[in-house]
Amino acid sequence: MKIFFSIFITALILLSQLPIVSQTALAAPSAPYVVNYSGSNNLSTSSDSTVVPGSTGVASQKFVVSGSGWNGAFYTDWGTHDVSNYNTLDFWVKGGAGGEALSINVSDGTNGYSANIQTPSDASWKHVSIDFSAMTGVDFTKWNTITFTCNTSAVNTTFYINNVEFSYVDHYTGPQVTVVPWNGAQSAVSLTFDDGYDSQLDYAVPALDAKGMKATFYITETAITGSRVDDWKKLPLAGHEIGNHSKHHYEPSANPSQPYQRTFNDTLGYDETVAAQTEIAQALNTTVVSYAYPYTNNDPYLVKYLKDTHISARGGWGNGTYYMKSSDTPDWMNISSQFTWSGGSFNTHYKSWIDNAISQRAWTVISAHHVGDADLPLDQFNLLVNYLDTNRSSIWIAPYGTVSGYWRAQKIIEGLTPNATSTGTSYTWNVPAYFPNNINLKVKLKNGDGYQVLQNGQVIQPDTGGNYTISFGAKSLELKRKPYAVNYSNSNNLTVSTDATVVPGNTGVVSQKYVYSGSGWNGAFYTNDWAAHDVSAYNTLDFWVKGGAGGEVFSMYVSDGTNGYSTTIQTPSNASWQHVSINLASMTGVDFTKWKTITFTSVTNPATFYINNVQFSRT
To answer: Which CATH superfamily is domain 2-171 in?
Structure first.
């Protein structure tokens, strides 16, 4: 903190010498507000002419960790600026080797927003775009600084930043879906077990099954060729995940000095990833979608084959935090995890892991090896399981592959552009080949009053919390304006009763049965309170009708209270239900911003007829 304060005071003294923000906040939103690099701590900096996708021609800044302690790069002129007429902060980032862990802090001088960022594992450029609405608490009328911190603290760790700017994005304002983080829970916890030890089958599985909890077991070739292969086969059937922990559990090494060490190449990289995945899946008759690095070593030859065959890979320090927020941008091939160990205990360590995940609304991955020995004594394991069970209302307890698959699918959905249609909005997406078919997401509607969610033509009903469960494997989603139901009001010279006959396309509303046996004018009125209603957002009036004997003739009149439209309708001769759909544009003269009534009148006398599902819709 003292170091930061000294830097800040120095910056104030040298303010006139520092680079300045190149554009004022009064600029039109169509022109980005570019923020320039200012200063840094424990970083060697230089400009770099590397061209990035979408580059403005501005040279990037190259940062190399040069010392221990806090490593921060400041983008600011140290003044207060009003950037509230923009709505997005975006920039480009890449690492020197790939997979570097960074964090960003955006501050107004009093309050700030932080997020974790991991550079792509292949050392390519990544474009990061953060909406102001996600940066809760920051007053953008008083924006002050943007700080990038390198959490990978090894000396000579290198990363690059380019095109830091505020911009205005003309966001879509129609109905859209937003994914609910962590399957609707406040946080998420995944229990994982490495190496396929018998103690996991003997102690961990029974304890988990007793609480209805599901975990991930990362195994090697030893488990599928050993004497307990049948026990391992039972785990997927009980809802647990089997993960890939390589074929031989080798540790990558440039200069091997131990029997378990190897220098990796393409052949060995393939064998320890894809070949191992295939063998485990076939031996245990299950889908294998996630990987755990032996010794947490994400060697490039492993990443090369994992990125197109596995949803994600579990490492060690990963993206720079053990508590991953849903807004973070992770490296899917190096997700963080924290390990139990000899000397660790529930009260001094493991309980806080759970508490931190809940308080930070984050996902944490807990990894263990032996269960029931010094690595994880049985009493400590039981305390951990019981504490998770006690906090189930705040935690989504699920296998690693389930949570990472949900999170990765969430990122894909959040990156989509909604497509406006005549009936509402649609989304389409691609599902990577290595995704399982059973990933479901919970979503909410934004600006969705009056709309319903459909997949494959089927309406999805919300749960009590207003969440809709959608299938990621369906590859599409439709938000369609709900029909505007018109209710029966009263009638004249008709005997009226309800009829529970089910009609095709029935919404669950019972039909009305009308019997005409008198003389004079007879009418059945459909109106929502006899007042004027604006139904101009719809384009169709539709309903279902049938006659008691078949062939009955009646007329329909649609009115705005001043002008009306009339037509004649005949029921099917075989007394079946008929769907009638009339385009509003054909009902000339009616002002549908002031619609009032629909009247059905029997021409046939005597007659029995039925009406159901009278509604305005958007087709």
So the answer is: Galactose-binding lectin (2.60.120.430)
